[in-house]
Design brief:
Blueprint lengths: L6 E6 L6 E7 L5 E5 L1 H5 L8 H23 L6 E13 L2 E14 L5 H14 L1 H6 L4 E8 L1
Parallel strand pairs: 5-6
Antiparallel strand pairs: 1-2, 2-3, 4-5
Helix pairs in contact: 2-3
């Protein structure tokens, strides 16, 4: 049976002038996070955006997928540092998520850069968040072995 994750959000006002709050997530890990249109299109000013949350979801999902792939290769990582940059941009079709760029640096004893890059790309393709974004968002990975 699958696991269902939940989030409760409140929004007041119009899109541009209004604001909202992520009031609660089912895990209880965080709550009362302010969101706004300006946080998506201008500066964050202490507020989050759906794209920032997608970046966090993609980074954590990717780290798990890559860790799994390295372990299956019998070369478990000592450490993986993952950063994901999600770009929200206006196009002819309107505003949307254009890219999700993964940058990973890893400490993996017994592995060369070529195999590290191969497994990094496989993790990009296999991560469930990548699979959800694929076909709608340009995905990339830059992998560096320490």
């Amino acid at each position: 049976m699958g696991i269902t994750s939940t989030a409760d959000v409140t929004w007041t006002g119009t899109l541009i002038e209004g604001s909202g709050s992520i009031d609660y997530v089912g895990s209880g890990a965080f709550s009362r996070m302010p969101v706004s249109w300006a946080a998506r299109t201008e500066t964050h000013n202490g507020k989050t955006s759906p794209e920032e949350l997608i970046a966090a979801a993609h980074a954590s999902c990717y780290a798990m997928a890559f860790s799994s792939g390295l372990a299956k290769n019998n070369t478990p990582a000592t450490k993986l540092s993952v950063k994901v940059a999600v770009t929200f941009d206006k196009t002819d079709a309107g505003w949307g998520i254009a890219t999700s760029a993964i940058t990973v640096r890893g400490e993996v004893p017994g592995l060369d850069q070529a195999k590290f890059a191969e497994l990094a790309d496989a993790a990009k393709e296999g991560c469930p968040v990548s699979r959800a974004l694929k076909g709608n968002v340009a995905l990339s990975v830059e992998a560096t072995l320490a």
